[in-house]
Amino acid sequence: MKLSNLTIQQKITTLLLVYFIIAFIAIASTLYASRRLAGGAAAINDAGSERMRSYQIAFLLTQYTDHPSIALHTEIEQIITTFEQTLILLEKGDPSRPLVLPKDKDIHLTLADIQQRWYQQNKHLIRAVLNEVDKEKANLLIRDYNNILKEFVAQIDHLVVMIELSQAEATQLLRGFQNGLLGLAFIGSLLLLSLFTRMIIVPVQQLKKGLDTMGHGDFSIRLPVTSHDEFGDLASGFNHMVKQLQEIYATLEERIQTKTNTLEVKSRELAALYDTAAFINTAPVTDELCDVVLNKMIELFSAQAGIIRLIDPKGIGIPIVACAGVSEQFLHSEHQVQCGDCLCGDTINSEIAISCSISPVEYGVFSKQACKNEGFEGVVSVPIKTRQGVIGVFNLFFHQPRILPPSEVKLLETVSQHLGAAIENQLFVDREKEMAISEERNLLAQELHDSIAQSLAFLNIQVQLLQDGLRKGRAEQVDKTLTQIKEGIQESYDDVRELLVYFRTRIKHDDIDVAIRDALEKFEGQTGISSHYEFDGNAVSLQPEIILQFLHILHECLSNIRKHSRATQVDVHLSHGTECQLIIHDDGLGFDSSKDAGETHVGLQIMKERTHRIGGTLTIDSSPNEGTTICLTLPLTSNILPKEITKA
Distances in Å between the alpha carbon of 576 and those of 317, 542, 556, 581, 645? Predict the structure, then answer.
């Protein structure tokens, strides 16, 4: 395997492993030479001690011959034992010291010769001397020992010299290993530096140079790929990136223009959607709403025509309510279709938007050829939905075959949903207006029945009595009847004025406190009945509808007080805390509220209906000759609009 095919990690691991093996061998060789020197030095020391012991034995033998003693004999035996143990150590070595003879054949032969002479000659003569009783014979034996001792010691000296020579060689070897280790460290460092520079530093510098060149806008730079390691991959990736950037930069203007055009299209779509939504929320009638939405979508999608159909509430069909770009003949033939007929009816049944081309293959979807006769080749059909379901269909027509992308179909669906919601809201508003008009007419009828109608019935009776009095010539009865007729006419006039004020009530401000003060001021000026008003709590703005119902209930109470109570004082109290409460009390005749406050009293029933309409509660407390108290309570939830209050 070539080195260039390895990864950076594999290269570094291989180099360090080789360097470690070489260094390990060098260091191990140095340790071996050092141990050899240490073992040889110990061998020289022990061999030299053998020479000393040989002389010591000769000296002790002379003393023992002159003065034999057990102590000298024991000492000589101990030296002999030590001498022999040292010979054994020199032969076998001692790793713990360490003591090792050089691995030299001549040295080991010399040691073997010394051992042989010791056991065959020296030790034999020493034993003979120790065992000889005769002094003269012992001296002769010592003289023979001394004669062979010189040659024996010379042989030991020769062994020491041989070991020293071997030590000198080991010392030279150690120095060689040390010098080699030093050279290895120097050369290895240079080699590693060179290899790391070639493998890492140079590729990094090339990569940095390439980045700098690319940073100055030159995308023609390419890095050489000289290996298959990580830096080779980086160089290949860099070259690929620069190539891609060069291509992107070359087509940047085109891309920007494309994105700009896309953004302009999206901006127009959003603007159209915003304008359509804004108009939908303010459109006065459904026909105008459909016309404007249709024209905006035709302009946005560059369509040649379009129609909007809404399902007939009576179930007759799906008539066209808005159109643009179609002929009178098309309108005449396609004005009314049924659910399931053609693409429009099929869209209502399926409730799925469709964008397709009008081709002969697809004529199965179109029951009529009106679209084809009109010259249309493409159509979009989108259902108009509300919360209750599909209420119509929205169509755009194109003279060329065109299928809108899903995003544009989604936009049309969104517009159709807004349109459906607006149409539904207008229906709700119309129904609410109709209900409000019906309720107001009902209230007006109740008011007329409770006031003017009763007064006219009373006057009719008085006229009959007047005719009867004139016919019978009863002047007193005629005068009394005329007086009652005059009072009835005046009361009817007052009722009419009160009704005019009542039904012309308008809210000129959103402060119910001020509105109540104005109403009491008018009441006091018209009737002369004293009134007192009190307000507790923080200022609060109610919705206009709530204030209007409050004032109608107050007017109804004041009207009843004027007509029936014969009161001299009216107290009105408005409080605002966790709820809004209006209390109206008079000191008039009163009535039995447990019997006379039912549905037979039209005025009280009207007040209850108005209270129920705004979500409040009405309580009536009255007793004969103890006045009447009416309390209107309204929970403060969504009916209030909090406003800032600045206190001086």
Answer: 55, 11, 22, 7, 14
